[in-house]
Protein 1
Amino acid sequence: LVDVVGVVSGVEKESLTVAFVAGELRDELEKLGYNLESQITKFEFEQIILEPRIVKIVEQVGVDVAILCDMLDLLFEDLEKKQEVGMSFNSFVDSILSMRGSNPATVKDVKEQLRIIKLMIQESNSTAVKRIIKEFEEFKLEIQELREDFKDEQDMTTRRVQSTLPASSEEAMTMEEA
């Protein structure tokens, strides 16, 4: 019975927190002139969470605004894959509440973290491979230029040597007689 009361109390506390945050954010966004029926874009999200009154509301529920800003790319990554422009107000509130420091990590969180790390590694590898290929191409061109320069140098040296040598044996004898 004590456990049941504890669970019910926790659920009610969470409901009150969600209602408080949603209500406060709704009021502030309306004051700032945002239409809560339209989608919130990544740019708008960033602008909203940098508003001092919004920062105060968000920090009251234990969200670190700096970390929230750092996580913007990840928050909008899935939306971009679905080719959606932004998120609804409810998704906005859920995103903020999911970033509370007091939230315990779940298996879903760990799986999401692994997915993100895997994507980052793939992107890093892809970038590295592209860079290496580009540098090898540049190196290949430099080697070709050096070969051409070396061949030109050899040709010039050969012409110089040939120009200093007598053209025939008659010329050689004429030179000896003189």
Note: The helical segments are 2-31, 42-49, 52-60, 65-70, 72-81, 89-98, 107-164, 169-177.
Protein 2
Amino acid sequence: FSDETSVASANHSTLSSKLFPPVFPEYALTKAHEKVIVLLEALASCNVERRSITCCSFHILVDDGRRTLRELMQDPCLQIPPRFSGQCQNCGVLRCDADGACPFCEVENAQRPRKIGRAHV
């Protein structure tokens, strides 16, 4: 996915991320650009119906993702346990595999457990 796709979202996310603590406090925040890439990768993994928006696959997928997230927000609270063993120290994506390049920023062997404050993994 291109950098142009995520510029506005990344700028907004960077501002808001400094105001609130992370969900998993033992890990650093994931960079805004990488959050956009992770979401776009998930959306592009689905084949969805064309509904009201039909201009392009990007906007069709984002629209469907928005509807799906809106439905999820109606569900009861749920604590999602961490499903990873470390974090890419370059981009901040939480990952399960310990070897090789990060699948998002492609930095080789960037994955290591993060230590923030007194907690560590």
Note: The chain has a mean pLDDT of 77.
Protein 3
Amino acid sequence: EEDYETDLKNIAEKSKKLLPEGFPFSAHVPEDESVLEKQIFKNYTGAVYWNECGRDFIVDPDQPKENFQPENMHKLQYHSLKPIMIHPADGKPLTVQGLCEEITKLKFNPGEHVFLENIDLQLREIDEKEVMTVVFYTGA
């Protein structure tokens, strides 16, 4: 178990050095760090937006308590903050490193939810255009 903890610590330190200074999330970069220079989308060169799960799914606390029961989840009332454009539709491909740099520029404060658990890529309609949206799912 001690070796495992040491490995995790080394991976975390290496990842922190590779990601932009001020990147607000804890993420682990694979051993092959060339992944940072890879294009995220093979053929898509349009605008890319970003959101974080805490901004994307905000539950309205002022609703009937029964809405929170598992059988009534379809009645749950919530809203979302508009995703933020992080990459314009300029024809240039977005890389993993570029994505991290653009998110860093936002100076987003995730609070305690800094551990990047999952990333979802979604095609959404924003301002009457279909655009790619990157949604970060985070935990404490």
Note: Residues 2-18 form the longest helix (17 residues).
